[in-house]
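ping. complex inputs:
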Amino acid sequence: MTGTLAAVGAGIAVIGAGVGIGKIGSSAMDAMARQPEASAKIQTAMIIAAALIEGVALFAVVVALIA
Amino acid sequence: MRPAHKFIRSIVLAVVFVFSMSGAVSAQANGEESSKFDPIELINGHVWDSHDFHILDWDGHPISMPLPIILWTDNGLTTFSSARFEHDNGANVVVAENGHEFVRYKEHIFYADKFDKAKFDEVSTVGRPFMYEDRPLDFSITKTVFSMLFVAFLLIVIFSISARHYKKNKKAPKGVTGFLEPVILFVRDEIAIPNIGTKYQKYMPLLLTIFFFIWLNNLVGLIPFFPFSGNVTGNIAFTLVMSVIVFLITILSGNKYYWKHILAPDVPKLIYPIMIPVEIIGMFTKPFALMVRLFANITAGHIIILSLVGLIFIFESAFVSPISIVFVLFMSVLELLVAALQAYVFTLLAALFIGQAVEEHH
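pong. complex structure:
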């Protein structure tokens, strides 16, 4: 039972990460469409924000692994 | 074809060949007791640490490089080769050395008379490396330690070659140095200077070491064959030490404005009972996040690749292998990106924390 519950927990955490990174990607696209010359900076900031959000989601994966 | 295109073509071919081999190297004969393939056993064998370096399986026999086992017992330092355990992880083979007898169960070494399988099973995975009344202190050169020393050696060699170039001539570098120079300048101009400011020179060696060490360890963990496949950054003890180093350097270089922001911030005094504990906990959670982020990203990537390779063995059909290899190739290239990205994020956050510590009053 703990194994299944851990898998469900990991799945829920991944939903959070997916939504978060999706929002970052979409606002990055909007910003790049408005101002194409700033594309490089926006892309860098997007990648950094995505890595940080993924870090949080992987906290949940680690907890699920321990369980 | 222009030389640049040829270079890119050879890199792409090398990546495709190396990562397609992941399937071949993971093939193993677990034929003794069970003929059912256990994907969890495959993943555990490759992701967690082990006392010998498993190279491949030949004709049903595992071929591995035995690594020295170094134990601290009450009789003092005890060393022997892991070959004496004869690939046993089930506490069956007893090694007698220096007045004590040892058994190995699931890569943990116990005193033979104190090993209790039931007790081991009821302690959770987190507590298993401890249990110090029943175990000697284990300082062995394990697969992870060997990989880490190997990568450190590679880094020393690569950077000595590059440094010699600058002593000899003033022209723009080519070759290895030509590859490293823009990266080093990137670390200086995009990571160190924007975050630390004018005093960045003092911290450049630290940031460069963190960046290249983590990057090269990540890459070496991805390559599936012998001297390279050790999983260093996916080991939480390694990332713990890296973040403790960053934490100590932040604390030691904190100037009085840093401590003022933590212990006496510019807020109405009524909120102090909330602000100060939050700030102090924040001081610890930031390095903790650094540790877990790197560990979890790399371990998760390895587990995904191993699971995709294990698909071939679960379905026991050679027809699954083209699909599986394509997926593995795709995931491995994504992991290449993650390797560089995680090194960049770790270094960036380290620079950010150090910058907060040395920031002057504005």
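Residues 16 and 31 of chain A are 23 Å apart (CA to CA).
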